Amino acid sequence: DRTKIYDGIPLTANGIEVVDGPLFENVVFEATFTGGQTDVGTSQSGIESIVVKDGEHVITDCFSFVFLEGLLEVTPRPVTIETGSDRKPYDGLPLYELDHDVIWGSLIEGHDSFVENHTELIDIGVVDNVLEIRIKDDQGRDMTDNYEITMGHGTLEITPIYIDISTPSDSKPYDGTPLEGNEWMLTYGDLLPGHELIVTVTGSITDIGESFNTFDYMIVDGNHNDVSGYYAVFENAGILSITSGKIILTILTGSDSKAYDGLPLSNETWDLTGGYVMINHTFELSVVGEITEPGSIANECVVVITDEFGNDVTDLYYQVDAWFGTLTVIGEEDNGDNSATDFLISRGGTAGSGSGGGDGSGSAGGRSSGALFKVYSDISDMLYLRDRSYGDYDKLGFGVPALYESPFGVNPLSFPGLSVNNALTTTTIQIQAISRGLSYYVPYYATNGF
User: Fold this and answer.
1) Which SS3 state, helix, strand or coil, does residue 22 take?
2) What is the bridge-based pairing of β-strands 295-299 and 325-330?
3) Pairing assessment for the beta strands 170-173 and 239-243 based on DSSP bridges
4) What is the pLDDT of residues 149-190, one digit of tens each?
5) Which residues fall within 8 angstroms of residue 436, CB to CB, at 6 or more apart?
6) Cα–Cα 20 to 30 A to 78, which of 14, 299, 380, 426?
7) How far apart are CA 411 and CA 409, in angstroms?
8) Phi/psi of residue 230, each to 5°?
């Protein structure tokens, strides 16, 4: 009997064995055989003829023979084949890989491997790359059965399409209203042709703090089918923040004056010239300045701002900058010095209540009952009025006022004026007293810079 692993070469008998009968020294048996085995399998091998020699003498006739057939066996050739791997993002097309390699053992010369059937993957996922392998010779004959094939499998993988959707960050001081945004951007990756990205920004914050500028999304195809599952979306949400920065409110209160009459002097006019009040807040202002006796005081006010629940939020969300006007009561013996109290005079006069005449005149303070003088001028720039424009009072009139040294070394009372753009211009002004007996109170004027 003979056996071997398939190698493409025929397997035949190559010897005989005497299994019964006497053996003689120097006797040689020479035989020819029948049968052979090339492919995997078994077959019988017989003795076609036999010659017996003793040295140079043929002594075959001295023997009688009984021949027993032998067994020829060819076993499969073992090989290990491993299939290739591949991966790609989802694109709606099938993924397959036909590459494979013999990683253990070998094919005999003239043989090659071919893929008969293969695995395909279309949707997102991972599968073994199973191939049906056939082995053929150079004549195209199938030799697969002569091999014992062990398969190792690679993988096929389809991944989602990676995209990034981003919303911006934003910030504002607290004002009681929501901070929202509707902007978004595809900041990484692309959609497949025919796909549409629908984004709804939902981020919102009203109270002080921070939150993500969140959003909802859906990706649809041309038939409006939801194909979001084919995408891996990184949600890069911005930050919405409401800070506790206070709103600056600028408030001007009105000014007024009168001769002493024993009655209180007040002026409840005011104006909000800067800032704003939140829509869910209530603003209350009370002008509390009041004076009866001769002198001057600031026309103070009190501001209270409450939220929709009645809570006082004035100091929490607001910074109130109040510019108080002046209330002045002039006594019969007043010499116009007014040096006892210094106070701020609003550059706007009585806020929101000024009036002008068709002749170009304007009444400072806006209330005819309290107006002391008129100013006529051929310029329309802002004019600043000073109340210490008089000299000493000697019962007969006022002396020459003290000189105020300007940057140009001249007496402002005789200076023609300086325009707000700092270019020297010649102007004509006239100051006319309205109330009799108060001409000493008429101030001079100067433009911006004095």
Assistant:
1) coil
2) antiparallel
3) parallel
4) 999 999 999 999 999 999 999 888 887 789 998 899 999 999
5) none
6) 14
7) 7
8) -85, 0
